[in-house]
Specification:
about 220 residues, alpha/beta, single chain, globular, 8 helices, about 15% strand, Spore Coat Polysaccharide Biosynthesis Protein SpsA, Chain A, seven-stranded mixed sheet
């Protein structure tokens, strides 16, 4: 039986790129759900005009909170899985079918788009942040995960129902890996290409501060559950 899968796109001030992301995603999967996380620009209007379902946070609550809003919507509407991708165009919607095939073939609960072979094209601070995160989170999860910060992922409904995420910021994606690993859910890495390698100008990720927050969340999850 074919699974019912939606695309989830957290978006903060992504008006220049969100319409193209939505249109290209709709060519591969439907619906596309954009979570407008307190944007102050035309993100919401652009997303709706391109054909997205739009959910709104009146104020910015963080990427993790936006993802959880999208996950909750998907479960309430009977979806079997979701594909998540970023709003800035770094992730190529044309690669969504690769995630769908990997899910059908492996049944994995968490499939992560692996950019690790491309880390050399990132600025040094981003390289170091990604490599430190991969090392520490792999240990905490009990599984080798060479790219833990990629937001291009597939989450199964089983994971969404049974893994409770507590973080509202960027650390939520790392927390998901640790909790999935500790729950013995199947995690798979899927090599992906990117629209551009180093999204410093479009990313809201702060390498030092957010890496520290991720480390704290990972340590707390590993030690206290």
């Amino acid at each position: 039986m074919t699974e019912k899968i939606a695309a989830i796109v957290p978006a903060l001030n992504a008006a220049p790129s969100i319409a193209r992301v939505v249109r290209e995603s709709l060519a591969a999967i439907s619906p596309v759900v954009v979570i407008n996380d307190g944007s102050t620009d035309a993100t919401e209007q652009e997303a709706r005009a391109a054909g997205a379902v739009v959910l709104r946070h009146e104020v910015n609550r963080g990427k993790g909170a936006a993802l959880k809003t999208g996950f909750r919507w998907a479960l309430e509407n009977g979806f079997d899985a979701v594909v998540t991708l970023d709003a800035d165009g770094q992730h190529l919607p044309s690669e969504i079918p690769k995630f769908l095939r990997a899910r059908a073939e492996s049944g994995a609960d968490l499939i992560i788009g692996d950019r690790s072979r491309l880390f050399g094209g990132m600025v040094v601070r981003r390289q170091l942040a990604n490599r430190f995160s991969a090392w520490s989170i792999s240990i905490a999860a009990g599984a080798r995960v060479p790219d833990t910060q990629s937001g291009f992922r597939l989450y199964s409904g089983n994971l969404l129902r049974n893994v409770r995420l507590r973080s509202d910021g960027f650390a939520a994606e790392s927390e998901a890996i640790v909790r999935a690993g500790r729950a013995k859910l199947k995690i798979e890495m899927l090599p992906i290409d990117l629209g551009f390698v180093d999204g410093v100008s479009t990313s809201h990720y702060r390498p030092i501060l957010d890496t520290l927050r991720i480390a704290i969340v990972v340590a707390r999850t590993r030690l206290f559950g």
